[in-house]
Amino acid sequence: MKYTRRELGALTLAGALPIRLLAKPNSKFGGVQIGINAPYSFGNMSEDADSILKDLLDLNLSAVELRSQPIEQSLGAPKLVRASRNASAEQREQAKASLDTLRKWRLSQSIESFKPFRKKWNDAGVALQIIKFDAVDSMSDDEVGYAFSLARTMGADAISCEIPLSRTKWLGELATAHKFRVGYHGHAEIHNPEAFAAPASWEKAMTYSKYNCINLDIGHFVAGNNTSPIPFMKKHADRITHVHIKDRKMHEGPNMVWGQGDTPIREVLQLMKREKYPFQATIEFEYKVPEGSTRMKEIARCIEYCRQALA
């Protein structure tokens, strides 16, 4: 009798099967690697690394875009305190002190100490293909160097981040020095000259360094540009680190259950399959969970959507 991975997991937890019989996850369909942005997509930004890994294995996902926090906090990093736009002077000072504390911790670390983390995830069958760092434009040059080294140690192909366009010359120069790619994440803020939304934003950043690249969010692209992302993908495929997969309506419309919006998810995945693009198709789960369902059930539904599109 053949079992699904989920069934094997249930039997193992029940003591019916030894752990060694569990197959490793596999979310590469038709040659296209499906991954997920974590822990963001799971709805809990403070989720620890072991819980995230369990979620990935339960979903049979074999690749991930993982934020740096679970990696760093597994080694005792201090948590970053953030200040909102309406924060008081005292709150802003607390946030600044928190940032300084984290910076000192990062620069005190040996990159060698992160290797067991990578081994644990690789042994489980989950590739850490992209590492996402927050607040990159507030980092020192040395801290950015640490970020590149951490990502390389994890076996990642790139780091991803969200920073103003005007800071990409500085970051691109550091990326060139470290010979490591940066994927700039896009949104739908088409009229914001500092945002990555219009194709020209990425095209400007890419003039600064061959390591300045594209984290193309196809849902945001459709919502902001009111057109398909496919021509842009074809033009710049060699500079894409990964694509975020979600469904949105045009004219800055809302996130939708997949298949109900204007984003050509199926066509994008089929293009990736046909052209054998090597970059990850990364689920970024953002639509409202329907009544009677759960976030994990909906993510599983998204994965199945990808599988069927690539069959």
As an assembly, this protein is single chain
Coarse structural class: alpha/beta
Sheet having the most strands: 8 strands, parallel, barrel
Write out the CATH superfamily name.
Divalent-metal-dependent TIM barrel enzymes
- Strands in their spatial order, largest beta sheet: 2-3-4-5-6-7-8-9
Intertermini distance: 24 Å
Number of strands: 9
CATH class: Alpha Beta
Measured by DSSP, the beta-strand proportion falls in 5-15%
For the record, the count of structural domains works out to 1
What is the H-and-E element order? HEEHEHHHEHEHEHEHHEHEH
What is the third-level CATH name, the topology?
Answer: TIM Barrel
The CATH architecture category equals Alpha-Beta Barrel
Low-confidence stretches are: 8-21
Q: Which percent range fits the helix content?
A: 40-55%
Shape: globular
Radius of gyration: 20 Å
Total helical segments: 12
> Roughly what is the average pLDDT, rounded to an integer?
93
